[in-house]
Amino acid sequence: MTTSTETQQPAAKSMDDIVALCRRRGFIFQSSEIYGGINGFWDYGPLGALLKKNLKDAWWQDVVQQELAGPDGRPVDIVGLDSTIIMNPKVWEASGHVAGFNDPMVDCRETKSRYRADQVMVATPAGGDGAMYAFPEGDPDSIAKKLKKARVDLDTCEIRPLTDIAVDDFTRIIGPDATEAGTLTEPRQFNLMFETHIGAVRHEDAKAYLRPETAQGIFANFWNVVDTSRVRVPFGIAQLGKAFRNEVTPRNFTFRSREFEQMEIEFFIRPDAAEQWYAFWRDTRYAWWQSVGLAGDNLQLREHDKDELAHYAKEGAGTSDIEYRFPFTAPGFGELEGVSHRADYDLKAHATHCGKGDKLQYFDQERNERYFPHVIEPSAGADRGTLALLCEAYTPDDSRASKVYMKFTPRMAPIKAAVFPLVNKDGMPEIAEKLYRQLRKRWMIQYDAKQSIGKRYARMDEAGTPYCFTIDGDTAGDQAVTVRERDTQSQERVALDQVEKYLAERVGG
Question: Alpha-carbon distance 2 to 459, whole Å?
Fold first, then answer.
């Protein structure tokens, strides 16, 4: 099932331009940049921290705080949790991560680069003889120079995943960054969990892991929540938090990082109610991403094929991805959130590994029976969501001084409004500062009195600020200000004592 709200193909955007704006305006920085950075880790600057916080706050408000009617017409009951990043390592044995959380990895002997084998494609020229050319998935242009030199037309090549090629043929493959053939090693499994040690002495018994997902903290605390809260199936547990995966090849800006933040719900249901609750969460979460600013052809809902189902999914279980068309995936899509029916795999696994087995079954008072609840899991990435908001909002416009503006929805905009004195005299700064302090009590507001009004508008456009209020020479007399709207650049006069109401009606809060 693939769903989108429009059919018109969106205009292409440059990822290089978006990354440059993120650096220039303080949305996202390379972590440890002054020391040359560290691959796969990113810091959020002043604007980026606000944008990401707005996304996370909206998620928490909409899934935990606000009443949501479920498919049965009753309010959906969801409680919050904040579990630790480091847990007893037995948690990860029970979940299968210690034994099975692996990616196939290949190394290049020539360049010392490392790649995920399942993310490398190989172009084989027509005829099947001679050299073969490897390139990162989704980036065939990276081998253009090699093909041109070899007088090979990419359109005549057979494209296959590296994992589909016999190891004996690796001697013919020129690696993505290599110049010679035969430099790629045989694929081997690489566990993605970050290891650490607890206590002062490093030994095997002290080994622990940074969590690769937040979900297991929820499953391990399921019985604590049931015992201490007034919750009954169906109900959910929601958690926001950091997770860590030692990705072989982190890439595409913040899309695939080694440290990231998840927004996860584990929703516990009766086994016979899985189909309706899966459909409910799939459709609800897809609509939510549209509501925060991703409505349009760049968003799609894709049902998984059978060969994509995870190890915990039962035959016939529903699994779908909410995907966004990023500039680096176009014309394809990248995952924002997965919605899956995890069955009772996790609760059973933890009950078995902790030694209590069926004693930890949930007792359903209404039905007078015991069972392990099934789970519907909507699992979203806060960093990928923030990146999607940045890509969607980025809007080139040659009619502006900034040549680009960030078209965030008011709810997501890092700065809700700016207040300017037209000039720094004649009482204008005093009126502007008073208005700024009044509005700052409710929203993130920017006060800016430097440079021309056009340059100040340009700064706010690049920050994605929806409204700018200017105090001018007439304000003292008519008690009104000029408000300028970001997207249309239209202006109107608003009474000074009505500015707060005007803003509240448009940005909320």
Answer: 38
